[in-house]
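This section describes the prediction task in plain terms. A model, or a person checking by hand, is given the sequence of a single protein chain and must write out its three-dimensional structure as a string of tokens. No templates, partner chains or ligands are provided. The sample shown here is typical of the held-out split.
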Amino acid sequence: MLTKKECEIILGKAMSSKADFAEIFEEEGTNESVVLLNNQVESMNQTSRSGLGLRLYKGVQSVYGYSNETDMESILAMVEDLAQAFGKDEEKEIVLTETLVENKHLVEIEPFEVSLEEKVSLLQRAYKSAKEVDERIFKVQSSLGLVKQHVQISNSNGKFVKDTRTRVRMAVNAYAKEGDNLQSGSEAPGASSGLEFFEKRSPESIGKAAAQNAVILLSAKDCPSGKMPVIIDNGFGGVIFHEACGHALEATAVSKNLSIFTNKLGEQIASSKVTAIDDGTIVNGWGSQNVDDEGNFQQKRVLIQDGILTSYMVDTLNGRRMGMESTGSSRRQSYKYEPTSRMSNTYIAPGNDKFEDMFVGIEKGLYAKKMGGGSVNPKTGEFNFSVSVGYMIENGKITYPVKGASLIGKGSEILLNIDMVSDNLERAQGMCGSSSGSIPTDVGQPAIRVSSITVGGTSHE
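The expected answer:
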């Protein structure tokens, strides 16, 4: 990492142009992955990266450059190239003051200090548990992902901040076969934590959940289609809010009028049952950070309160376009990406309804037990999501499992059609891709009931 004095020299050089803001983002990181196929190590990789990104603003214009050459001569040459975009100005002196950052996401068992044998043992425990679920489980692939990232952020406003991020995640994919019927199930929890996470969420429970999902689908029937009530379960069910609504609340889209929620602060955009939050401060949360990637302290952001839109997720540059302050929402995959507004841990807050009461009065509907992937258009809010594990609801009761189900609609409509919100909040982990790269994000919700939504299915009945 550069010294504070070196950062002051670089920023001073950047501000000798007509730019009105300059920022340095430095990173040193290590990623490790261990993959098992059945009970054998398939691969083990460890990569390190080091570099910096340099950004200059003038009003709402920005230029960005990055390099893994971190000697002063190379950096100053990059600064000179970037500064030409805004023209020459007088030399400026930059004085940095370090802001001390408390690490709220403590690590008890450092992942990179644990032997490969111990890491393999964790995966073998998940494999054994998955195989024990059912004799029809014939293949299990499991992986352990570990990340350690040190960042240093400085800017022409005098900010000088350091942060360390540690994350661990285990993913298990189990495959079940009966005759020609082949199905798969997955589970992939993680946290901003050390390997102690797997004392709370055991490898056995992860392997078992993945295998159970695969086995359930062996007896699943093709899902019927049509408009019907849908109950979306807690945990990863929150991916619908994340994709269909969350991205449309990021300033990246809002500031450019590419969101259905532009200029709607203070308006009712959801059922009064819905309160939605993006909280980057959750202790050891998968999407948590002590500071965002512009060096601002993370926040708990209430996006929707009782159905009313109360906040967007805002980074500094898009905040300039919108006339708003940053909400600590600036994130990026690495120094190779210019940051922008992104989600952290986004969830619908628990309500007062009971899960079992949600089924009452439904003659025919769908219980989306586990959601899969999907796509969304932030400008229109139109989405299409697969349901990886679902059940039909008939006369208020859960009946048979179904496959091939998808949920189709618009984010603005689904928010207004939520008529029950349970009290069983859970969060689940995923990776979110956008213009600033792939970043870890939590999604979550209690079980919710949508009074009417289009279900796509494969049944010809």
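For orientation: Residues 116-133 form the longest helix (18 residues).
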